[in-house]
């Protein structure tokens, strides 16, 4: 799920950046430092949309660096257990398949793939129904439900299922050819 | 709205509560928070939206302790009783999503860095996998890299006499066509063993193949790319050092194949101490000078003398023939009904026994008189190849195996018209799984004084 929230961060800036462009420097550094990172609490920071305020700088003793409290608005993405997501399959093997929804990696085990879909090895490994009508392989788009999430400092990892109504393949690149 | 969507919402709720009740002091979430010095500002009116409220709920719940009762309504806790937690990714059960750790689970880092599979699940998967594989008339083949399928050397170990190779490497744009590659990022030259492409192609019709190397993962994956640029053979089946569960040993425990259906090709025997019966020992491919030196060989390397193994008649082509025999014998035996219980190790044993089956050997001056011949490596090797070994000279003996041409037994051999061969005749038969022409290993008669 996406959220638009306000976060605050203390930014350390080297004195050489002090001048008329100080604020620009701060914002540029903020984007570089924060966008694309992941926090266990808020999830993945997708984009900074605005800076609310830059507080008074405090000189750090002994270094000359100045720390500014910056409040900024940003869009974050945080997966929840029970959430239904659309994802692109990245790898298929006999254990199940891996898929990605933006920054989130999701594993769907063969236990949570419908029983009528069977693993087929070969140059394009896939799960296919016995009549061949539905196929999951690399680059297939699937709708899945998250049953477990793990967020740590650098990545978000989830366990998902497609073994429920309305879940599964939504666009099959193999079927088009 | 369907009922399932309200379930989803219940799960979402339970997730929010799960966050609140997590009091573990070494929780990563807390660490991150301290690092980033982040403070939410939910009072901000301008951007406040409905979705923000959800986060706000997380915040509120964080201080609360009276929510334990509610949590029991969540779907996850029901799963606790019935889910066998067969495998986990990143510490989460792949079936119920609970954070369960099974101590006996085996890590399968080559499939995914955070994947672990429990022993029962592994046994179940092995059975299911074997069944579907046998239906396709296939077995498993585990392949070593270095000295078996290819040979690599570091740039700094390249000898002056093979330096010319640096300018003769093949393009990485068209890997399928080349056999000598310069890998700048790894500071390495790699030469694929002649015949390897045909070998892999034909073997893949009979086997599901794994790479299993004591090299590092980055090296293993790079070699897999050279051997299999189309990713046809080794998808998620490249096992490297970090995947081994025991130091300096390769084990079939991390291979998704049942022991009775696996054939191993490797030039190093001792790493397979638990699976010797599955092993076809390979004659080492030493292309580069540094490779032979590593094993104490001091003659000119293939590269230095601008030679190579013969494509159509080298080790890999000989071994492919053996694999075909083994495969045929496994699937064509008379007890058609009981495929699952057949054992490829027995097949290997009996195919090996045909190699020297009509030979009766007597050994001369190869080991000391007081040593028991039955314990000698050469004696055992010859017996495994189907030869009969004896210590008594008689008419039924076919070969005298000797290091010297001047011994009593050697004279006897010449007088009676028996083959007189060097022990390398047996070793060669052992590598090629084929009786070698005796003339190539004949001992010259001693010069008359
Ligand atoms: Mg080796
Ligand atoms: Zn479980």
TrEMBL record, chain A:
Molecular-function annotations in GO: single-stranded DNA binding; single-stranded RNA binding; translation initiation factor binding
Domain RNA polymerase Rpb7-like N-terminal intervals: 9-64
Name by which UniProt lists this protein: DNA-directed RNA polymerase subunit
Biological function: DNA-dependent RNA polymerase which catalyzes the transcription of DNA into RNA using the four ribonucleoside triphosphates as substrates.
Gene Ontology biological process terms in this record: positive regulation of nuclear-transcribed mRNA poly(A) tail shortening; positive regulation of translational initiation; transcription initiation at RNA polymerase II promoter
Lineage: Eukaryota, Viridiplantae, Streptophyta, Embryophyta, Tracheophyta
Coiled-coil parts of chain: none
Family: Belongs to the eukaryotic RPB7/RPC8 RNA polymerase subunit family.
A Pfam family per the record: SHS2_Rpb7-N
Every S1 motif domain range: 79-156
Record carries keyword Phosphoprotein: no
Annotated source species: Kingdonia uniflora
Protein localization: Nucleus
UniProt-listed PANTHER family: DNA-DIRECTED RNA POLYMERASE II SUBUNIT RPB7, DNA-DIRECTED RNA POLYMERASE II, III
Record keywords, A-Z: DNA-directed RNA polymerase, Nucleus, Transcription
Gene3D superfamilies xrefs: Nucleic acid-binding proteins, RNA polymerase Rpb7-like, N-terminal domain
UniProtKB/TrEMBL annotation, chain B:
Acidic residues bias (residue ranges): 23-38
Main location: nucleus
Matches recorded under SMART domains: CPDc (SM00577)
A GO molecular-function descriptor: metal ion binding
Enzyme class: hydrolase
Compartments, as annotated in UniProt: Nucleus
GO biological process, one term: response to salt stress
Domain (FCP1 homology) ranges: 134-306
Pfam families in the record: NIF (PF03031), PTCB-BRCT (PF12738)
CDD domains per UniProt: BRCT_CTDP1, HAD_FCP1-like
Domain BRCT as annotated: residue spans: 351-443
Ribonucleoprotein found in the keyword field: no
InterPro entries the UniProt entry points to: BRCT_dom, BRCT_dom_sf, Fcp1, FCP1_dom, FCP1_euk, HAD-like_sf, HAD_sf
An annotated GO cellular component: nucleus
UniProt keyword list: Hydrolase, Metal-binding, Nucleus, Repressor, RNA-binding, Transcription, Transcription regulation
Record EC number: 3.1.3.16
Cofactor(s) required, per the database record: Mg(2+); Mn(2+)
Reactions accelerated catalytically: O-phospho-L-threonyl-[protein] + H2O = L-threonyl-[protein] + phosphate; O-phospho-L-seryl-[protein] + H2O = L-seryl-[protein] + phosphate
Ranges where the record places region Disordered: 1-38
SUPFAM superfamilies tied to this protein: BRCT domain, HAD-like
Subunit-structure text: Interacts with RAP74.
NCBIfam families per UniProt: FCP1_euk
Described purpose of this protein according to its UniProt entry: This promotes the activity of RNA polymerase II.
Protein name: RNA polymerase II C-terminal domain phosphatase-like
